[in-house]
Amino acid sequence: MPYAPQSLTASRDSTTIEAEQSIQDVLDALDDPDCRAILDATGDEALTAGELSEQCELALSTAYRKVDDLTDAGLLEERTRISRSGSHTSEYARLVEDVHLTLDDCGLSLSLSKRRSQTPAPRGMMPANSD
């Protein structure tokens, strides 16, 4: 019977994945040039699917499909961009800074190093010291 661990462990700054299907989802997303372009585009700021479509030169339907793949793989986070007009839209932010694949006696594991939040503190508020 093949080794098929189903565990997921998390610490404050990283997540380790050992479930084979979850590892494969991350690797598939990272192997896709369109997904890599989206990850690169969301490196500095959260963007809507329309903004990603334009910036990455993708059809809007492709941008939505790739965003879904990246979100399912745990590489992007969907947020709500609030507008003064009352029409809110989804925007997507990259969740990880580094991905490390490890092969040892127990099999494969994948570690995702989380990004520090890119969300600015509200006006007049100082961000909490994370040390």
TrEMBL record:
SUPFAM superfamilies attached to this UniProt entry: Winged helix' DNA-binding domain (SSF46785)
Pfam families (alphabetical): HTH_20
Residues spanning the membrane: none
Segments for region (Disordered): 112-131
Top-rank taxon, per record: Archaea
InterPro entries xref list: ArsR-like_HTH, WH-like_DNA-bd_sf, WH_DNA-bd_sf
Protein name, as recorded: ArsR family transcriptional regulator
